[in-house]
Amino acid sequence: MTNHRKIIVHIAASADGYIARSDGDIEWLTSRPAPKGFYGMNAFMKTIDTLVMGRLTYEAGLRLGGRFDPKRPTFVFSRGAPPADVPAGVEFVSGEIGPFVEQLRERPGKDIWLMGGGDLIVSFLDAQAIDEFVVSVVPVFIGDGIPLIARRPRLTHLSLQSVERFDDGMVQLHYEVQNQSRSR
Amino acid sequence: MTNHRKIIVHIAASADGYIARSDGDIEWLTSRPAPKGFYGMNAFMKTIDTLVMGRLTYEAGLRLGGRFDPKRPTFVFSRGAPPADVPAGVEFVSGEIGPFVEQLRERPGKDIWLMGGGDLIVSFLDAQAIDEFVVSVVPVFIGDGIPLIARRPRLTHLSLQSVERFDDGMVQLHYEVQNQSRSR
After folding, report:
1. Which of these, B29, B14, B69, B17, lies nearest to B46 by C-alpha position?
2. CA of A72: how far to CAs of A4, A159, B107, in Å?
3. Which residues of A touch B23 (CB under 8 A)?
């Protein structure tokens, strides 16, 4: 029996539920001084060996100077043609989420980090392909932006696993995804 | 010197930041069994003696069978004409928030509960008239609905006062409103 590789959304959100401003800006997040341990992110990185993200998130990462580790494969979901120049370790995928996740889970490995954005998260949720959410709630209201989950009525029950409070007012909520329905 | 009567938003929100579905439905919230102490609500009610809400919230409260205590005055903000039949203790107001809040704070009394909805909250925020937010985060994603803060870009810094976790997975985040700007 293989171990179950979990797919985990580990993401920061404003206290009013946005992962970025409408134009992708996250200055409200990146302008914060990073505390020691980076909100548990360093520990989390040791539990995953695969990244999954949407194309906009990938491009935003590139703009922010993000580097990709060839030892930690990155899958970028994109409906369009992949760019000509892709860093080592990055693979563009355009197929269905279900078979992709099944294949990924058949290979032994650590957990999988689903980085976002909101559209990919909702597609994975609809495919019943997310195990956990770790939401780092930043103590700021930004008023409008890209929601954590792309907007469509749903009812997804969560089971709270833990709550961690950091000195700077960040609160990390760790949820397991329970039964859900696509409609309300 | 009079004591400072705080204006507090005490509200439940889904884990994706909505206070109700788009049509006002809160079945995802009311269908939960109420635990002993009702998430600290009973204790909170002892610290306030005045309610403030928008007209839609007032009407939703009436539909849900809410009763108004004449000893605890309720102010309903409404741009339209007040209804002919208003319960004892309820007063309709249509003026500016600034002078209203100033008058309220000049009278001695306990704290003031700003119940919502999102439009009134954002108007009070813009008038620098909210001291604290107590957000009870329900462990459920509803995907779309009325946001905690009506949608308009802003940057409101919050200071986390406390985090309380309840057995059923509800997490109560208590914030103080810090400096803010209306724009980003």
Report:
1. B69
2. 18, 29, 63
3. none
d(CA A54, CA A130): 15
Chain A CB within 8 Å of residue B127 CB:
no
**DSSP 8-state symbol, A148:** S
A24 close contact with B: CB closer than 8 A = no
Distance (Å, rounded) from C-alpha B13 to C-alpha A131?
22
Name the one residue in this structure whose structure tokens are 């954005």. Answer: A117
Assess A88–B contact: CB distance below 8 Å, yes or no.
no
Of the partner residues A22, A133, A140, the one whose CB lies closest to the CB of residue B155? A140
**Does the interface predicted TM-score (ipTM) exceed 0.90?**
yes
pLDDT digits (tens, 9 = 90+) for B113-156: 999 998 999 999 999 999 999 999 999 999 999 999 999 999 99
Token readout for B53 is 């809400």
pTM beyond cutoff 0.90: yes
Token output for B35: 């635990």
Tell me whether residues B153 and A21 touch, CB distance under 8 A.
Answer: yes
| A179: three-class secondary structure by DSSP | strand
Phi, psi of B83 (to 5 degrees): -65, 160
The CB density around residue B143, as the number of other CB atoms within 10 Å, is 24
- Tell me which chain A residues have a C-beta less than 8 angstroms from the C-beta of B148: 16-17
For residues A82 and A75, give the distance between their C-alpha atoms in angstroms, rounded to a whole number: 11
What is the rounded CA–CA span in Å between residue A112 and residue A47? 8
